[in-house]
């Protein structure tokens, strides 16, 4: 069990609660409601500890379809819970905080994407649209393929005909990285993740100097100058596989959301993990911007409350049907 250091505050009553009592309540409600908890690697470690499934977006999307329970609690962000609902429409999908969004998904509104696609077609471009899973369902419904950092390279190499251009949305950094590893030219949407965007190259260089033998792990959502300094570039599952493949204790500098250190420690506790800090604030202090504020909206109390009250719930929307086709084709076949 992870060490629980933070007090829990019920937002409605502002009463401090004992985390262990909240966990007991969650366990009881889970049974009563026939529920299963899915937690992304970027939520707090104490939620990952009580989850039935943990993982990255790809693994959790697949886990959601495998779970036999009638209710899914998705401790993550909105687009993830939406994808779970789209892939398992018969299940009730609860998101502990409806405001848990994603700056990357927000950077690509569906109306803007539709207008840009029309503009490219009018200019004579013959393209397919490949979207990172960090997009709204409305955007997914406008796309040909959905990828995650775990399957993007393989999917593009195997499924996208060589004679087609690729419009890649919404992450410009992941897109640039994919251009390099696949050798395909892409039209890039200018979006980025607020967490990975702020990794400071100066901090990384300084950390490397202090730990000259350290191995740098970077998520492909990081800007190019950070990726260029990394020894291993990959999504969260690739990072886990890599650290567990080394038995010799090693120091890692980790350039992704800081909570990722929790599953790395769990799978390979013999290593030391140092989070790469974000850009220094004017005061000279390092900010905590390598924590995703959207993922941080998930708390044990909110997991308990969504089970207790049956909301917030992701409700089926008409455009989910088209998004369902592309998600199933991309992630489940
Ligand atoms: S870490 Fe970035 S991409 Fe992931 S949910 Fe947060 S804002 Fe979105």
Automatic annotation (TrEMBL):
Enzyme class name: transferase
GO cellular component: cytosol
GO biological process, one term: 'de novo' NAD+ biosynthetic process from L-aspartate
Any GO molecular function: metal ion binding
Pathway in which this enzyme or protein is active: Cofactor biosynthesis; NAD(+) biosynthesis; quinolinate from iminoaspartate: step 1/1
E.C. numbers: 2.5.1.72
UniProt entry keywords in alphabetical sequence: 4Fe-4S, Iron, Iron-sulfur, Metal-binding, Pyridine nucleotide biosynthesis, Transferase
Keyword Translocase among UniProt keywords: no
Tagged with keyword 4Fe-4S: yes
Cofactors that this protein relies on: [4Fe-4S] cluster
PANTHER family listed in its UniProt record: QUINOLINATE SYNTHASE, CHLOROPLASTIC, QUINOLINATE SYNTHETASE A
Name the record gives this protein: Quinolinate synthase
Native organism: Planctomicrobium piriforme
């Amino acid at each position: 069990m992870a060490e629980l250091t933070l007090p829990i505050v019920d937002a409605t009553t502002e009463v401090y609660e004992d985390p262990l009592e909240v966990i007991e309540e969650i366990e009881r409600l889970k049974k009563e409601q026939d529920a299963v908890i899915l937690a992304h690697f970027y939520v707090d470690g104490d939620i990952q500890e009580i989850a039935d499934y943990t993982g990255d977006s790809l693994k959790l999307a697949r886990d959601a379809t495998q779970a036999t329970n009638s209710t899914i609690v998705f401790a993550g962000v909105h687009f993830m819970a939406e994808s779970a609902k789209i892939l398992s429409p018969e299940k009730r999908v609860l998101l502990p905080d409806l405001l848990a969004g994603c700056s990357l998904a927000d950077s690509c509104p569906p109306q803007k994407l539709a207008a840009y696609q029309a503009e490219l077609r009018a200019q004579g471009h013959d393209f397919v649209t490949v979207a990172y899973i960090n997009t709204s369902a409305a955007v997914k419904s406008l796309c040909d393929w959905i990828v995650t950092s775990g399957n993007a390279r393989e999917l593009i190499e195997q499924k996208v005909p060589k004679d087609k251009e690729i419009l890649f949305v919404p992450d410009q950094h992941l897109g640039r990285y994919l251009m390099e590893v696949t050798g395909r030219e892409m039209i890039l949407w200018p979006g980025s993740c607020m967490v990975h965007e702020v990794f400071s190259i100066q901090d990384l260089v300084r950390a490397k100097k202090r730990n000259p033998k350290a191995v740098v792990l970077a998520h492909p959502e990081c800007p190019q100058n950070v990726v260029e300094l990394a020894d291993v570039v990959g999504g969260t599952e690739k990072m886990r596989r890599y650290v567990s493949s080394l038995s010799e204790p090693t120091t890692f500098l980790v350039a992704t959301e800081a909570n990722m250190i929790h599953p790395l420690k769990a799978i390979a506790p013999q290593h030391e993990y140092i989070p790469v800090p974000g850009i220094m604030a004017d005061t000279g202090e390092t900010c905590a911007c390598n924590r995703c504020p959207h993922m941080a909206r998930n708390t044990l109390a909110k997991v308990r409350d969504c089970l207790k009250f049956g909301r917030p719930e992701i409700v089926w929307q008409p455009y989910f049907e088209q998004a369902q086709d592309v998600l199933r084709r991309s992630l489940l076949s």
